[in-house]
Amino acid sequence: MTSLTTSSSLPEQAVTELRQSLRGVALLPEDVSYDQSRAVWNAMIDRHPAIIVRPRGAADVMATVAFAREQELEIAIKGGGHSVAGNAACEGGMMLDFTDMTSIRVDPEKRVARVEPGTLIHDLDKETQAHGLATPGGFISSTGVAGLTLGGGFGYLSRRCGLTVDNLTSLDMVTADARFLQISRDRHPELFWGLCGGGGNFGVVTAFEFALHELGPQVLAGPVVHDFADAPRVLREVADVLREAPDEVSCLPVLRYAPPAPFIPEAFHGKMILLLAMIHVGDPAESEAALAPLRRIGRPIADAVGLKSYTAFQAMFDATANAGARNYWKGHYLSELSGEGIDVLCEHAGRMPSRESVVGMLSLGGEVARRPAESTPYPHRDAAWVLNVQARWRDAAEDERHIAWARETFDAMAPFTTGGVYVNFISGDEGAARVQAAYGDVTYTRLATLKRDWDPDNVFHLNQNIVPTSQAT
Predict the structure, then answer these.
(1) CA–CA dist 144, 118 (Å, integer)
(2) How far is it, in rounded angstroms, from Cα 67 to Cα 435?
(3) pLDDT tens digit string along 203-251?
(4) Which pairs with CB-CB distance under 8 Å and at least 24 residues apart come from 258-266?
């Protein structure tokens, strides 16, 4: 498809007719809200669509996709805009910005939530927790539900409840030829399978429905902090504990510079630390005993674990990942966290050039591992840990330095990994081979066939793209 570069090249009459057909708004570069709408989380991304549509419903999306096809515009889709790859924005094309589609409807009796694609995790958590319910999703609550889900999605509840897509029950979607579909395991089952981790490759999702689980609203959770010098020994013990831990225990170890948080002694502010974010999501009567093996490891410099609302814990680290910084990520899966791999990881984390960068590793297993690998396009069910190397900085002149650190850490860890990658951790420059590594050969081939059936022209290619079989051969 040919991408236009300026709004002046769009036919005025066509834009007028589009605007008249919408409940939402269509923005051109001269409009007041244009710059706010085109902005995304990763400050490395600075793109200027020819036109931005902020839809109010599926009918608006159908009209927008039809308009983009007629005008030969690339289509970028912004849910929460949190993707590190920055695919939510395009240069000279059509941007669908779902900022105005954030409705959430919870049915506490059926234990389901229907969610529009502009919704953020903290919005979903607040609505579901009002009923003592939740679904697995993320670690930074400003993350968008749509992108998280379409890539597979995991969070602190995943060991107990599975991936985000394991809890997806249905979707509404607009296809590449601007048709509206309702999709579930019973309606278009192969397409439903593909949407459970295959990204935004098959259409524009306008609503998600999730199964919900009892939780909270009070949980035992919080961070335990260790001196960075103790990190290799502590990480070994953490890994040992989690091999035997119940599914209701989740732990996210993070290597980073200590923020000026009140729970961290002032003497450690600005110094490297190991932070263990932990939570128990089972019977409250068992919480203290369940987290005790993790809390008594080593000699922590701080222990802020306590009873708190699940929504507060989900948002606890949001300020460390807010919008406006430059970001570059690299990711791996680990079959285990042990031995020399821990030493290498800590060595490279110690060279971290930015006070805002982090190396995080989430414990998996539990319900994630019990689901069959072929049940969704997420094939890494047997991985024990997922590793995310996050370079984060402010000055564009320092791009090369910070990106180099992330790549060097990634390369150094390669001998200790499975070779796979979580699709939502892929940065924008990693290429087609890395996308295939996210799915594996068998799953990627199945997805490419599905792509051929639903988007043979690769209209939806501004994503971690799956090339239609007809184009790949």
Answers:
(1) 7
(2) 29
(3) 999 999 999 999 989 999 999 999 999 999 999 999 999 999 999 999 9
(4) 258/225, 259/319, 259/320, 263/222, 263/223, 263/225, 263/302, 263/304, 264/225, 264/301, 264/302, 265/301, 265/302
The pair of structure tokens assigned to 34 is: 């244009």
Say whether pTM exceeds 0.85.
yes
pLDDT tens profile 180-201: 999 999 999 999 999 999 999 9
Angle in degrees, CA 326, 32, 205, rounded to 5: 65
Dump pLDDT digits (tens) for 369-424. 999 999 999 999 999 999 999 999 999 999 999 999 999 999 999 999 999 999 99
Q: 98-126 burial string, b = 16+ CB within 10 Å, else e?
A: bbbbbeeebeeeebbbbbbbbbbbbbbbb
Strand 213-214 to 302-303 pairing: unpaired
Backbone phi and psi for residue 27, each to the nearest 5 degrees, phi listed first: -110, 135
Query: What mean pLDDT do residues 442-468 have?
Result: 97
CA of residue 312 relative to chain centroid, distance = 19
pLDDT, tens only, 7-49: 458 999 999 999 999 999 999 999 999 999 999 999 999 999 9
- Structural contact between residues 1 and 89, judged by C-beta atoms closer than 8 angstroms: no
Q: Would you put residue 86 in left (φ > 0), alpha (ψ -120 to 50) or beta?
A: left
Q: For residues 345 and 362, give the distance between their C-alpha atoms in angstroms, rounded to a whole number.
A: 14
288 is written with which tokens?
Answer: 């203290």
Give the C-alpha separation, 305 to 247, whole Å.
18
Our measurement of the distance from residue 398's CA atom to the centroid of its chain's CA atoms, rounded to an integer in Å, reads 25
